[in-house]
């Protein structure tokens, strides 16, 4: 009985948590939508292509996915905003990485020479396997003949 009450309390608190997140996302939705468009508009394009692929794959799942997108629009916009920020930072980090910088002619890349040393492996010596004598009355062995 106590476990059932604790489960009910836990589910109620989770409902309140998700309701609060949904309300905050609903309030911030217009700003986040415009910010996501400014940061990286390709996120919206790829999400639209995903919805179109759902329709091509199965029109029932396409209708369900569009319906869920409309019902959960604040969370979808929050997802698209976070995805646009992450792709922007990843692409910015990739462009500044020394591996992707243009090399001047005559410059050599830094490298470290790795020595290939085979380590000696010591194996555990096991005693020889002793065969058990077969029981003449064991019918289980007859199944595998």
Residues in β-strands, percent: under 5%
Poorly predicted runs: none
* Element-by-element helix/strand order: HHHH
What structural class do helix, strand and pairing data support? mainly alpha
| Largest sheet composition | none
> What gyration radius follows from the Cα positions, in whole Å?
31 Å
Shape: extended
How would you classify the quaternary structure?
single chain
Mean pLDDT: 84
Helix content: 55-70%
- What is the number of beta strands? 0
Q: Separation of termini?
A: 56 Å
Number of helices: 4
In words, what does this structure look like?
With 145 residues, the protein is mainly alpha-helical. The chain has a domain at 37-82. Helix content is 63%, strand content 0%. It contains four helices and no strands. The chain has helices at 2-39, 42-57, 59-71, 73-96. α1 packs across α4 (73-96), α2 (42-57) packs antiparallel against α3 and α2 crosses α4. The longest helix is centred in the N-terminal third of the chain and has 38 residues, at 2-39. It is extended. It starts with a helix and ends in a 49-residue tail after the last helix.
Summarize the structure.
By secondary structure, this protein is mostly helical.
Task: Please describe the structure with a list of short key phrases separated by commas or semicolons.
4 helices; 145 residues; 0% strand
Draw up the topology in text.
Layout: H1 2-39, H2 42-57, H3 59-71, H4 73-96
């Amino acid at each position: 009985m106590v476990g059932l009450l604790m489960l009910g309390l836990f589910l109620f608190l989770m409902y309140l948590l998700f309701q609060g997140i949904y309300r905050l996302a609903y309030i911030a939705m217009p700003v986040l939508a415009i910010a996501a468009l400014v940061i990286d508009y390709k996120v919206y394009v790829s999400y639209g292509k995903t919805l179109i692929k759902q329709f091509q794959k199965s029109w029932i799942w396409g209708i369900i996915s569009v319906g869920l997108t409309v019902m959960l629009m604040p969370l979808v916009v929050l997802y698209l905003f976070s995805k646009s920020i992450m792709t922007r930072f990843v692409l910015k980090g990739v462009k500044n990485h020394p591996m992707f910088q243009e090399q001047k002619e005559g410059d050599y890349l830094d490298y470290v020479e790795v020595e290939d040393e085979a380590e000696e492996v010591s194996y555990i010596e096991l005693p020889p396997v002793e065969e058990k004598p077969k029981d003449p009355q064991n019918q289980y062995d007859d199944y595998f003949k």
